[in-house]
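Possible regression after last week's pipeline update?

I re-ran a chain I had predicted before the update to compare outputs. Posting the input and the new output here so someone can diff against the archived version. Not blocking, just want to make sure nothing changed silently.
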Amino acid sequence: MNEKHYTLNFKIKWFGNNYPDKFFIDLIISDLLIQPIVKKFEQNLKFWAIHRSSDHKIQEHMFEFRIYSTSKTKENIHKDIISNNFYTLIKDNYLEKDTYFNDSNDTSVEEIEAVSDAKWPLEIKKIWPYYIMGVSDMFIKLIEELRKITTNDLRAMNKDKLENYYKELEQKIDSIWLGYGCHAFIHHLSAIFGYKPIIPQLRWRDPNSGAVIF
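New output (post-update):
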């Protein structure tokens, strides 16, 4: 079917060095644009995932929707995104430019493992896309579950109300991650691998300087 990897890029405006305060924008994009796309096109996507990043050095905040599909599916997804009722609000207020697909002529993008880290052994490269797809699915479903708790009509909200709504959702997700992330996610991942030791290589970004800490 001539499937390839494509990345739909949302280049978010740089609002200064207080980037953690603007990560709620990622939730808006995830919930209002990506979640409907996944539900509609899931049968046509061998792989999909979200990726969030912020880099102070180059003042860049990116949200990416990565897929493995045919070019026709990619085109249909893009059409659905830009025709979404929320897209204009998101584009006008939060994006530096229209969302766009990164298309690569590199033949390696035809392999499912192309999205994995080049330094990993091949066996990890081949299976990691399915892992991150599950994590991404869990994340957007978590947003959806939290949204069910309220009865707010998102379509009736103006920009300020929408921002406050997703800032509150972000706080709830942060609280879940802080209180239950170690057991619900990290512990059970460790259990699958038989509680074997690992060499710590976790990275985190300092919220003040933006520096990546190893």
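Follow-up from reviewer: compared with the archived run. The chain has a mean pLDDT of 88. Marking as no regression found.
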